[in-house]
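Most newcomers find our protein records easier to grasp once they have seen one. The structure tokens are whole numbers drawn from a learned vocabulary of backbone shapes. The record below serves as our worked example for the rest of this section.
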Amino acid sequence: MIAHHPAAPGRPHRLDVLIAAGGLSTGVLLWVLDLHGSPPLFGLPSWATLVALAVMAAAELLRRTAPMTALALAVPALALDVCVGTLIATVLMFTDVLYAAVLYGPPAAARRIPVHSVLVTVLATAATAAAWPDPQVVLVGIGIALITVAPAWTGVIIRGHRDAAQNARLRAEQTALLAEMDRTQAVVGERARMARELHDLVANHLSAIAIHATAAQTIDDASATRAALAVIRENSVQGLAEMRRLIGLLRDPAATTGEEPAATPTLDGLEALVEQARANGVASDLRFALDDDRRPADQGGERPPAPLELAAYRIVQESLTNALKHAAPGTVRVRVADGPGGALTVTVRSPYGERSGPRAPGSGAGLVGMRERIALLGGEFEAGPEGGPDGRVWLVRAALPAAGEEEQR
């Protein structure tokens, strides 16, 4: 069985060594000059004063590294010094050791020592008054208080200021850390938002360009090639315009003019979005149908909040892009329906199966972006193959909650 011993005190602090050396040399000088308080009591030798002085100097060496051990040495050393003559250097070093015990000792000791110092002062003064009934006992009590109470409560005050400063420093560090975490999260969130916007704006055009470029290379038909090149040119011009607009918004959001496209698309542009997909899907034998089941405003329909409307538009846009890349020949059906309080449901069904025509590669970033958009709004999202009356389809379904439901989440 291994015995555990308390760790030995560390190396004395340089200032503590100077204090101990200064107190010891001063005390020796006072003893040589016979400058001490009174003759020894109880028949003790006068040189015992030097023993008390040496023990007190040793306690000074431990005042910072082992304050409670230093106090345990200092108390009997003071008692011996009082009995053999009372050197002022020994008394002053005791006050410093008591002060250091409160300042550097454990919290429990810092709470108890001041209270005990007051009790010792009261008891010592009372005992002196009982043994020597003289008005000068008041001076004796004041002297004892200066040796015990004053250094102990001074340590309490200094420790309180030190702890308050340390707590303030910790709070400042925590605040700085939280601010840095918030800044990092804001940067990551903004980068993710920019990635989604860039993907949604450009991927549709680039996918159409890739599909029609492949068709132009594989189909030996001049008219089909010219049609494919026309679609490629149209998507290139539109993609370039979208890129320029996005770059302008990133550089200076206030620099946009009313002549430029709206920065935030709305569901009013779904018909144009589907029409563009029809033009781009000719080479892949894809047809597109839009079912807009939202109630008009004159029939009690509510306009959804801008974030929901933008998310629904982007879901449809990305689903059409994925259909152009991967869907089998057939009809892609887009359905948008509203609910109470501005809630929205977006459903896109694409033919699912083998595709013989040209197709563009995918990275999966579109599905990730759609999930992120719906998660930010507290909605529900699902995407995957599903059986239906028209055969296997790839279903994309997004349920966007109303503004009130979103706040409750």
Remarks:
- Residues 1-7, 256-262 have pLDDT under 50 and may be disordered.
